[in-house]
Amino acid sequence: MYRYDDFDRAFLEERVAQFRDQVSRRLSGELSEDEFKPLRLMNGLYLQLHAYMLRIAVPYGTLSSAQMRRLAEVARRFDRGYGHFTTRQNIQLNWIRLEDAPDAIAALAEVDMHAIQTSGNCIRNVTADQYAGVAADEIEDPRVWAEIIRQWSTLHPEFTFLPRKFKIAVTGAELDRAAIRVHDIGLRMRRDAAGAVGFEVVVGGGLGRTPLVGKTIREFLPKAQLLAYLEAVLRVYNALGRRDNIYKARIKILVHDVGVETMRAMVEEEFAAVRTEGAIALDPDLVATITGHFAPPAYPPAPEAPAEVAVLEGVDRAFARWRRTNTAPHREPGYVIVNLSLKPAGRPPGDATSAEMEAVADMADRFSLGEIRVAHEQNLVLPHVRQADLPGVWEAAKAIGFATPNIGYLTDIIACPGMDYCALATARSIPVAQRISERFRDLDRLHDIGGLRLNISGCINACGHHHVGHIGLLGVDKNGEEFYQITVGGSAEEETAIGRIIGPAVSSADVVDAVERLVEAYVDLRRPGEPFLDAWRRIGPVPFKERVYAAG
Amino acid sequence: MTLQAVTANRLADGAVVFRTPAGAWSTDVAAAAAVATGEAELLKAAEADAARQIVVGPYLIAVAAGAAGPVPTVHRERIRAYGPSIGLPGAGEG
């Protein structure tokens, strides 16, 4: 893991002191809300529907057990004893008091954490594949570059007041686990013909009210040129992005308006200029140092495919099922990646209590070399588990209710906080997620349905990624009543696609039945083994639509 | 007859509050001043409280007269007044 040096720590301490002073001046009346708002947002402090909300950054989704314990402590001491893990791998505390916020931020800084770049029109906290550094299919650890982007972008004077917020995601493998095509910039590590490692650069993706799939503007960018190229993209956006209309201010609109060819040409021209004037020279020693921080841990030897695990799988169907759905192959022989599902039936997706966070920290110390990851699907990951420890991890996960075998299945729902917490929402998300997860709680049925992503957003801003759910639900307000628009066919994976609306929005009372009819239509119409998206693309919308609206 | 009340967030802790007939702020919507006319004056008084750094972002909401006092009529404002419609995961934790 990246470890803060004196520079990082001094910077955070300075930032905490500044924020403490700003809050004190706000409380004394020296600063008005208009003056204070941009300052608090630069420290991740929002004013939401019920209270202040603190969005804490978890850079590229990597946490140590000590950091997780501190999150638990901050949630307990300054909030109501729980937090919400988000689709950008951050965690939100929903009930922070303004007068406590400086102490909360100071407590986080003690473990190298902060809430910087979680708000505002800056380059936001960079996200990455949650399996970074351990995935069997990975080319290189993308966090090295996510960390370099963090160091380059934090307080970057040129990019602190962009036309709009700017989100970058990095993935290190062919399989896209970071949803790179729905980010302002998506980076995918790849090899060129000579075997050198670099990036595919995707620009102009995004969800919200104008969902667009990002376009590749560079098939291969050498690693050493990354910052110069990012600088070129940001400069083109900073100069041409629309500041006159908040709904048209994201880079996706620029790319859409000028077209990918023109965008590519403008970026390449700027890239040449940046390099001519003397681009940021990435000090190879610094890159080596950062790379060293992400070097694989010293894995104690562990047996591959231990017999006791196979035996338990043979006799315990529940264990076998959990292992199949909630674990992933590890690059180190004898090890495995374990997903902890934050989606038990009936619970708000992504929420964890302080006690649960502490239990996860304990599990990380006992079973995962002290490390935890946050997935953008709002689950937690133990990245370094000995296969022989799987039975123990399973028992520990069951004890806190995080062993539901549903990773990638219908009840692994992505949901935004919705109108239960969010000031922008037009409808609730969490209760719908809870009702759907209750309806499909039968595991035989869930597993028979197979892999299926259902995402819910409580408004058009699409924080719940409904556009790229295989099934998406968008909450809308119709004359004061909550209705839900249903989209089908979206995907955030390699073949990224925006789902299409299949018909009129359905009422809150009907939405779970409508989803069930849609899922049953798939089960009836699929060929043996045919995944949902394949069936949808083969059959087309009509039969699904007929079933969904048949009873209406 | 449409009744209106004024809500805001309390500056120091962010709590949702409602302006009372006595000119104080209460976390209980039932204690809110509800007016059929003169809402502009009510809002103006609330804005003066915002300028005095007591509350943040005051605005008018529609309410109905309930048995115990004003009740918000719009769904969003009901959630804001009474809290999330879901059980809080941390409930019961110290």
The residue ranges of chain B in which pLDDT falls below 50 over 5 or more consecutive positions are: none
Major interchain interface with per-chain residue totals: A-B, 41 and 28 residues
Query: What is the CATH homology-level superfamily of the largest domain in chain A?
Result: Sulfite Reductase Hemoprotein, domain 1
User: And the CATH topology of the largest domain in chain A?
Assistant: Sulfite Reductase Hemoprotein, domain 1
Biggest β-sheet strands, sense, barrel of chain B: 5 strands, antiparallel
Binned, the helix content of chain A reads 25-40%
Strand content of chain B: 25-35%
Radius of gyration of chain B: 14 Å
List the quaternary state of the chains.
Answer: heterodimer
Count of helical segments of chain A? Answer: 18
**How big is the Rg of chain A?**
23 Å
Number of beta strands of chain B: 5
Shape of chain B: globular
**Residues in β-strands, percent of chain A:** 15-25%
Terminus-to-terminus distance of chain A: 53 Å
- How many E-type strands of chain A? 21
Query: Looking at the structure, what is the overall shape of chain A?
Result: globular
Q: Find the structural class of chain B using helix and strand composition.
A: alpha+beta
Give average pLDDT of chain B, whole number: 94
Cα separation of the termini of chain B: 45 Å
Structural class of the helices, strands and pairings of chain A?
A: alpha+beta
